[in-house]
Amino acid sequence: MAFVQAKCVNCGGILTVDSDLKTANCPHCGVTYVVEDSINYYNTVTKVEHLHADVVNIADEKSSEGLLKAADAYVKLGKFKLARDKYEQATTLAPQNWRGWCGLIVATTHNFEKRIQSRGTLMMLEDYARSAEAFATDGECNKLIKRFKEYEAAQKGLNKKEISELRDSVRETENKLQALGVSERDCRAFIEQAHVDKDVTEKKIYKLRQSHTRPVGRAVIGADIVISIFVKIFIKGLFGLKALLLLPAISLAGVLIHSHLSEHKLTSALRDIDSRLPQWSASVDSIRKNKISIEHEKEALLETLKAYE
Questions:
Q1: First vs last C-alpha separation in the chain
Q2: What burial letters (b/e) apply to 233-258, b meaning 16+ CB within 10 Å?
Q3: CB contact at 8 A, 240 and 231
């Protein structure tokens, strides 16, 4: 009695059967099957037994031919990373076999559909192509190499265009940063000058308020008296007497009105400065945020440029 692996010819279920028996019933579908037929079916239907959990089991996989078959199966499944691993092993075992080198090109480029930006990766693919050409034995290899060269030329053309666009973008961000730097310096200069103007204005207001009730007023009255005497001497009659009485009061009132108008003007200027300072400070904060954002954008562009190296 010898138990071996078999495969149901009706449902495809995997079986463990006694090879001495002529027939048996499938535990999966219940159909009666010929044991010898199910064993032969299991052994010949395919070399790939399971395609599950990214595992491809191929007979004699440790040999270079087995590795190549496993890698080809992974390519068909779209498992390019696993395919690449197998092709690398195959080229290590049999570097004279062009199929391994061409397979590395196919796996790396995802069957010539992947966008390759790195110059280093393209140079590596060129090495694979040269190795394949060195051991080419039939037209299939030459066909793949020709396809790779067309693919490589297209990638280099795209890379050249994208590199130029990226460099233009980097220059644009640098110009933006330079302009924002000038704007920030101007805003800071405005803020600094505003603080100076505010200090000067506050001092003027203080002095003006102090002068309202101090000897300056009395000095003005005295001056007006002198003027009114002068008027009395040269202007005779009742009008000169009235002028003597009225001119000091009129002059003092004029001085006070002028003083209050000046104070109002200075106070308005001070309020204007106080209202503008927060706006300039907000502008500086906004400029700094924009600079940080653009600096990050520039760093991302430079990182992208590195990918082409």
A1: 65
A2: eeeeeeebeebbeebbeebeeebeee
A3: yes
Extended strands (E) in the chain: 3-7, 14-18, 23-25, 32-34, 51-52, 55-56
CA-CA distance, 258 to 166, in Å (whole number)?
65
Task: Find the angle CA(68)-CA(72)-CA(75) to the nearest 5 degrees.
Answer: 140
Which residue in 98, 90, 42, 45 sits closest to 68, CA to CA? 90
DSSP 43-66: HHS-S---EETTEE--TTTTSHHH
Question: Among all chains, which residue has been given the structure tokens 């099957």?
Answer: 33
Q: Which CATH superfamily is domain 51-137 in?
A: Tetratricopeptide repeat domain (1.25.40.10)
Q: pLDDT (tens digit, 0 to 9) for every residue of the chain, 309 residues total? A: 678 888 887 777 888 888 888 888 888 878 888 888 788 777 765 344 444 334 444 444 458 888 999 999 999 999 999 999 999 999 998 898 999 999 999 999 999 999 887 778 888 999 999 999 888 877 888 899 999 999 988 888 887 888 788 888 888 998 999 999 999 999 999 889 888 888 888 888 888 777 655 544 455 545 555 555 555 555 554 455 555 555 555 665 666 676 778 778 888 888 888 888 888 889 999 999 999 999 999 888 888 777 665
User: Rounded to whole angstroms, how far apart are CA atoms 167 and 18?
Assistant: 72
Q: Other C-beta atoms within 10 Å of 24: how many?
A: 16
Cα 240 to Cα 229: distance, rounded to the nearest angstrom = 9
49 in Cβ contact with 57 (< 8 Å): yes
Alpha-carbon dihedral 148, 154, 159, 164, rounded to 10 degrees: 160
Based on C-alpha coordinates, what's the Rg of the chain?
A: 48
